[in-house]
Amino acid sequence: MKQLPTRAEIVETLLKSYKRYYNITLSEEEPLVARCEYFEHSEKYVLHRKAELWSADNEEFLYLFQVPHLTAEIFEKCRTFAYEDGMPRLNIGPGHMASAITVVVVCDTCDAEAETAVKKTRIHKSFHFSLHGWMNVLTTCVAAENGRMAANYAGRSVMKVMKKVLYS
Q: Nearest to residue 105, comparing CAs of 138, 78, 73?
């Protein structure tokens, strides 16, 4: 039987895979390990760049946390920190399409209440009736002891990618 990776190995593997796509800033303060930033700009123009038809900016701010035992209270603190730190970083305006604030918590063990809190997180904002885009908060957690993962509805895509990166 294949041995499951430890919490430190999971964090190291995730940071290695994020390095290709994100600008990573490591953190000294516990339990935050790193803040990862992703920016994408798309545009369509006719003949030359001054005749722009449309443009769209997408951005994501991923916060990677690690704790020995995840409780609902610790998760709430991590989610609140990520939300309060991520909202001022959003570049909202006429070209903004979508933003995501992603909370990834890696732990050894996880309470059932914490898993429920991860799954029930629903934070969505639209800016100027969606004319200036929208923002979602994606949450996911990984328990190293048993390899169990949980995510909210918006974070299911993050969880699928993490399964491929960690367990394939």
A: 78
What domain range is 89 assigned to?
A: 7-41+53-167
pLDDT digits (tens, 9 = 90+) for 64-79: 999 999 999 999 999 9
Is residue 130 scored above 80 in pLDDT? no
Quote the CA–CA distance of 59 and 108 in Å, as a whole number.
30
Query: Quick check: 140 and 149 in contact, CB under 8 A?
Result: yes
In this structure, are residues 151 and 139 in contact, taking their beta carbons and an 8 Å threshold? yes
**Structure token pair of residue 135:** 């923002």
**Using CA of residue 124, residue 132, residue 105, residue 33, what is the dihedral sign?**
negative
Asked if residue 55 has pLDDT above 80, the reply is: no
* C-alpha closest to that of 83 among 26, 38, 124: 124
Six token digits for residue 105? 């918590």
**Is the pLDDT reported for residue 101 higher than 90?**
yes
Check if the beta carbon of residue 53 is closer than 8 Å to that of residue 44: yes
Give the count of beta carbons closer than 10 Å to the beta carbon of residue 26: 11
What total of structural domains would you count in the chain? 1
